[in-house]
Design brief:
Keywords: NADP, Oxidoreductase. By secondary structure, the protein is of the alpha/beta class. The protein has six helices and eight strands, in the order βαβαβαβαβαβαββ. The structure holds NADP nicotinamide-adenine-dinucleotide phosphate.
């Protein structure tokens, strides 16, 4: 199986890549810095293929799709992991909309852009999967105040997940949103659970059997309320 992970140079994306390589899969390890992608791939071993990819760049995404079609030569699993702006300093009532817009470029339009660009390769796969790394913060059920840029863009990502799942069901491509839980990364800060625990639920969604769920929202393989 060939997977591509965005934001694979640190945090959860790096751990997901490590686990997939360890399980014998080929992983296109992408980062917005080529050096970071190369360093990570070198650490993970021969089945990791480095690629520069800023998810906000239309050109990068187009080039990445062309590069992956050449080497490793296809794609089975797209893991939209990269995200920014856990904006604990803002409230919806006073949020800087430029910050919200910038977050949307990475957290919502990035995954959308990647799904569109890689769709031809995913359609070609016999077991196409898209995993959108989301957050329980995006659950409308019980949503309250705070982190407006992050929350609204992840809620948009959840909506995109539902639509792509419906539109790609006939192609056999399973599309799910996964919350990794609170994880001790640069974004999560200290006190969260180990990255391996957060990454495991993403690997689960990336390696679902053909009769696995699609259009769902999960943490640790268990459904979360939308
Ligand atoms: N940690 C948590 O507690 C938690 C909880 C719920 C959900 N999540 C979700 O889990 C995912 C991973 O989070 P994390 O905690 O591992 O975050 P992180 O440690 O902050 O890492 C974020 C990664 O995304 C990359 N990135 C940011 N903007 C990018 C862009 N435009 N193009 C390509 N890559 C970009 C970063 O690359 P650079 O190194 O270049 O900045 C980095 O590799 C995110 O979707 C996050 O929302 C995390």
């Amino acid at each position: 199986m060939i997977a591509l992970v965005t934001g694979a140079n640190r945090g959860i994306g790096r751990e997901v890549s490590r686990l997939l390589v360890e399980a014998g899969h080929t992983v296109v390890v992408t980062a917005r810095s080529l050096d970071a992608a190369k360093d990570t791939a070198a650490e993970l071993g021969a089945r990791a293929v480095p690629l520069r990819l800023d998810v906000t760049s239309e050109q990068d995404v187009r080039r990445a799709a062309a590069a992956v079609a050449e080497r490793p030569g296809g794609l089975d699993v797209l893991i939209n992991n990269a995200a920014i702006t856990y904006d604990t300093w803002q409230r919806a009532v006073n949020a800087d909309l430029d910050v919200v817009r910038e977050a949307a470029e990475t957290n919502l339009y990035g995954p959308w852009r990647l799904a569109q660009a890689f769709l031809p390769l995913l359609r070609h796969s016999r077991a196409g999967r898209i995993v959108n790394v989301s957050s329980e913060a995006a659950s409308l059920n019980g949503m309250g105040s705070g982190t407006p840029a992050y929350t609204v863009t992840k809620t948009g990502l959840n909506a995109l997940t539902r639509m792509l799942a419906a539109e790609l069901r006939a192609d056999g491509i399973l599309v799910n949103a996964v919350c990794p839980g609170w994880v001790a990364t640069d974004m999560g800060g200290p006190g969260g659970r180990p990255v391996a625990d957060g990454a495991a639920g993403i690997v689960w969604a990336a390696t679902l059997p053909d009769d696995g769920p699609t259009g769902g929202f999960f943490r640790d393989g268990r459904p979360l309320p939308w």
